Amino acid sequence: METKAKSKVYPLAMTAVMAAVMCVLGPMSIPIGPVPISFTNLVIYLALYILGWKRGTLSYLVYMLIGMVGMPVFSGYSGGMGKLFGPTGGYIIGFIPMAIIAGIVIDKCRNRGVQLAAMVVGTAVCYAFGTAWFCVQAGYAVGAALGLCVFPFIPGDLAKIVIAMVAGPMIRSRLERAGLNPAQ
Predict the structure, then answer these.
(1) Hey, is 179 helix, strand or coil?
(2) In the chain, which residue ranges form alpha helices assigned H by DSSP?
(3) Which portions of the chain are predicted below pLDDT 50?
(4) Dist. CA 33–CA 166, nearest whole Å
């Protein structure tokens, strides 16, 4: 029988675990230009499948706050407010609406095509936030910024979405079979 203490602590612990996974994988990036390839969005998508949209988004916010206070959890093992206000900070902020958009649809709709579309739309919103901020901070025209900050990332981001669509439900199902409902 479940105790009240477990029912309150367990979801918080699962949220913290996913934030910790982001802290481990987020800094591991591949520098290909002014915006590196990061694994953060993959972990966000996995968190949404495993925890649901509210706790998945919360796990990202915890990760973001950890980075904002200076811990080197952002791409390239960087952290601090300078990263947030720098040229790539719009992508860090853009992950929030990405998580909300994709997460709500993942929670409400079991149709895999609709989930895929929601993650693509969420990613496009993240691209929009990030590219707009990059243009302002780095002084690039929109076309040039898209060429540097969006187009090279589309194939990899689509691959991350597919990985999350396969792995996320499997992980959640196995946790549930083990009696550990991560979205409690």
Answers:
(1) coil
(2) 4-25, 40-51, 53-68, 81-85, 89-108, 112-138, 142-149, 154-177
(3) 1
(4) 29
